């Protein structure tokens, strides 16, 4: 990516390549890259297994976040899934699930089964506990995968929705692309990804504390293009405190969304749109 960016200590980089070279070393230098991932997980291992912990001290944004996600998800289920999801056995994957906050407050109400993936064992244990008394025989958390996204290949054709929120910043660009390419084959027909992430105003911001990168909207779009994914819908998350990064939701599909005959202005951004 030919975009400039900064790190959390104010250091400037002329390009993403320059930043990645410093963060994970030259291509083929697996030692530094392994250390990058190890440091990211170690950071989260030192965080309390609570809503406030996984939200970086902003536990009070949970309600706004879940409400925003629910509005986005509901429309997508209706538009994309057979019968609008009615009378279907729906399955979701919650990636980088932390303590199961999103599954507990949202996904388990819409999906018959939810699988959780989380590399930090203490978070996944908390998720198991938090979800033990939630749901029912027909709405339940099924699998708990204790593995990082870059090492995960989901089961083939299992999921209607793969939800990726506030965790993909831990992956390098190549591992980001590689993960979505593997995961594409795990979606059922009509299935889709939701990526909900912080946005940098421009370029990127490297967080040296938790070993993650916050990407800009153009940066995400370029990576989605490299994944061969199509942008079906996007929506900005509203109601978050001003001092936080803006947050955007992306719905992504493997198939090309049908052309919409426009009756409104071309400047509307939340319409089906192929990534350019
Ligand atoms: C900000 S928390 C968000 C948790 C959850 N998605 C939520 O919104 O409540 C970031 C999560 O990403 C997880 N994570 C860190 N590195 C990861 C990786 N390589 N693959 C998947 N998840 C990772 C952390 O352990 C942590 O649970």
Automatic annotation (TrEMBL):
**Top EC group:** transferase
The record describes the protein's role as: Alpha-N-methyltransferase that methylates the N-terminus of target proteins containing the N-terminal motif [Ala/Pro/Ser]-Pro-Lys when the initiator Met is cleaved. Specifically catalyzes mono-, di- or tri-methylation of exposed alpha-amino group of Ala or Ser residue in the [Ala/Ser]-Pro-Lys motif and mono- or di-methylation of Pro in the Pro-Pro-Lys motif.
MF GO annotations: methyltransferase activity; N-terminal protein N-methyltransferase activity
According to UniProt, the name of this protein is: Alpha N-terminal protein methyltransferase 1
Instruction: Give the UniProt keywords, A-Z.
Output: Methyltransferase, S-adenosyl-L-methionine, Transferase
Task: Provide the catalytic activity annotation.
Answer: N-terminal L-prolyl-L-prolyl-L-lysyl-[protein] + 2 S-adenosyl-L-methionine = N-terminal N,N-dimethyl-L-prolyl-L-prolyl-L-lysyl-[protein] + 2 S-adenosyl-L-homocysteine + 2 H(+); N-terminal L-seryl-L-prolyl-L-lysyl-[protein] + 3 S-adenosyl-L-methionine = N-terminal N,N,N-trimethyl-L-seryl-L-prolyl-L-lysyl-[protein] + 3 S-adenosyl-L-homocysteine + 3 H(+); N-terminal L-alanyl-L-prolyl-L-lysyl-[protein] + 3 S-adenosyl-L-methionine = N-terminal N,N,N-trimethyl-L-alanyl-L-prolyl-L-lysyl-[protein] + 3 S-adenosyl-L-homocysteine + 3 H(+)
First and last residue of the signal peptide = none
List, alphabetically, the GO terms of the cellular component aspect: cytoplasm
GO BP: any one term: methylation
EC number(s) recorded for this UniProt protein? 2.1.1.244
Q: Which family does it belong to?
A: Belongs to the methyltransferase superfamily. NTM1 family.
Q: Which positions bind S-adenosyl-L-methionine? A: 96, 101, 149-150, 165
Q: Which Pfam families match?
A: Methyltransf_PK
Recall the taxonomic lineage recorded for the source organism: Eukaryota, Viridiplantae, Streptophyta, Embryophyta, Tracheophyta
């Amino acid at each position: 990516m030919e975009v400039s960016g900064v790190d959390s200590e104010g250091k400037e980089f002329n390009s993403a390549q320059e930043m990645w070279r410093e963060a994970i070393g030259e291509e083929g230098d697996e030692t530094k890259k392994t250390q990058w991932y190890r440091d990211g997980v170690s950071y989260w291992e030192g965080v309390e297994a609570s809503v406030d912990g996984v939200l970086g001290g902003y536990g009070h944004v949970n309600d706004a976040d879940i409400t925003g996600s629910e509005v986005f998800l509901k429309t997508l289920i209706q538009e994309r899934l057979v019968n609008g999801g009615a009378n279907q056995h729906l399955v979701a994957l919650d990636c980088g699930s932390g303590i199961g906050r999103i599954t507990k407050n949202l996904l388990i109400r819409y999906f018959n089964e939810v699988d959780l993936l989380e590399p930090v064992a203490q978070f996944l244990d908390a998720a198991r506990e938090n979800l033990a008394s939630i749901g029912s025989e027909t709405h339940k958390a099924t699998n708990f995968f204790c593995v990082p996204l870059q090492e995960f290949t989901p089961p083939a054709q299992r999921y209607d929705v793969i939800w990726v929120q506030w965790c993909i910043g831990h992956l390098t660009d190549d591992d980001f692309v590689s993960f979505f390419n593997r995961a594409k084959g795990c979606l059922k027909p009509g299935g889709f990804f939701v990526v909900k992430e912080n946005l940098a105003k421009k370029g990127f911001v490297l967080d040296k504390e938790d070993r993650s990168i916050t990407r800009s909207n153009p940066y995400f779009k370029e990576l989605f293009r490299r994944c061969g994914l199509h942008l079906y819908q996007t929506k900005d998350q509203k109601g978050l405190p001003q001092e936080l990064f803006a947050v955007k939701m992306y719905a992504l599909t493997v198939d090309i969304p049908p052309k919409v005959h426009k009756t409104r202005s071309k400047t509307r951004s939340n319409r089906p749109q192929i990534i350019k």
